[in-house]
Amino acid sequence: MKESGGDEAPVYTSMVPSGLMLFAARILLIVALGSGLGLGWNAFSGRGLALTGNVFVKAGDELVEAAAAKARLGKGALFVDARPLDFYDMSHVPGALSLPEDQFDVAFARLEPQLRASLDVIVYCAGFGCEASHIVSRKLKERGVPAAILHEGWPAWQDAGYPTREGKLP
Amino acid sequence: MNRGRRFWIELVLGLVVGGVFVYASLDKIAKPPDFARILYHYQVIGPSATIPPLVPNLVAVILPWVELLIGLGLIVGVLRRESAAIAAVLLVVFVAAVGSALYRGIDIENCGCFAVTGEGRKAGLKLVLSDLGLLAASLVLLRPRPLTSTGRAA
């Protein structure tokens, strides 16, 4: 019976340094090819996106920075909170109405008179990664209520130290 | 392991994992902006106060094509180990992204795995489990092929 030692083990390709380099080089090749195809497709297929733009923002969206929104609140702007109701109850912009994106139709029917009576409507949601304010603003526009979007949403308002209100009442 | 058996295992796993990756890439390739929107929802790679939209946008544009290439590689058997290595890394990243969204309580209705518009698959625990299954299969495919065997004593 032969002795079983280290050199008895099968030699694997990846244990050879040059093999490992080749392996890594081929991985890079796949990623580079994918990058080239992706960037080319994005540029020439007509289905692409603007690489430096924010895809939540579409043509016609009016974005308002927190400071400007605060000034407009002082002039009687009506704020619309597009986050789920629980978040509204925890804290919201004073005077804001709760119009959660996932319950738009029900909430809109209830709030329609107030929304139509307002000359300046600003929608906000939970900031980065939150698309609800954009969607609600477009739905309002479709129904003839022009509505701006608070850029970077609730976190921007809160971080600026602007007034907030807790509870169910506006 | 018996070489013939290994061949069949690699063939079947390659078809399964490769098929999933090819299928996963198609709708994202068709609609880059919609895939980008889903990446934004994760709030992992931006955009944020510090990360410009360019970062998630590049991922949205490039990732589906890498998925397509490695999927084809796994199915056809060209650069299969390299494709399996990329698949394994991607699956670890996917599990981390979904796990982090779950941990932070971010509700992601459409995980962006397959269809990027309308009703998608929810980013939840089930998804983590199926990703882990695919990861295990990728690791099997990643194993190096024995070049020479000195042959153990029988």
Describe the protein in words:
The complex is a heterodimer of chains A (170) and B (154). Chain A is α/β, with parallel strands linked by helices and 170 residues long. Chain A folds into two domains: 6-44; 63-159, Rhodanese-like domain (Oxidized Rhodanese, domain 1), CATH 3.40.250.10. Helices cover 44% and strands 11% of the residues of chain A. In chain A, strands 2-6-5-3-4 form a five-stranded parallel β-sheet. The longest helix of chain A is centred in the N-terminal third of the chain and has 28 residues, at 17-44. The model of chain A is unreliable at 1-6 (pLDDT under 50). Chain B is mainly α and 154 residues long. Chain B has one domain. In chain B, helix 3 (54-76) crosses helix 4. Chain B is elongated, with a radius of gyration of 18 Å. The mean pLDDT of chain B is 91. Classes of the chains: A alpha/beta (170), B mainly alpha (154). The A-B interface holds A 1-2, 4, 7-15, 23, 26-27, 30-31, 33-35, 37-39, 41-42, 47-56, 128-129, 131, 152 and B 29-33, 36-37, 40-43, 46-49, 52-54, 57-58, 60-66, 68-70, 73, 79, 81-83, 85-86, 106, 144-150, 152-153. Strand 1 of chain A pairs antiparallel with strand 1 (146-148) of chain B, so a sheet runs across the interface.
- How many β-strand stretches of chain B? 1
**Beta-strand fraction estimate of chain A:** 5-15%
Unreliable spans of chain A: 1-6
Number of domains of chain A: 2
**Mean pLDDT across every amino acid position of chain B:** 91
Enumerate how many helices of chain B there are, as a single number: 5
Gyration radius from CA atoms of chain A, angstroms: 27 Å
The radius of gyration of chain B is: 18 Å
- At the fourth level of CATH, the homologous superfamily of the largest domain in chain A is Rhodanese-like domain
Give the termini separation of chain B: 14 Å
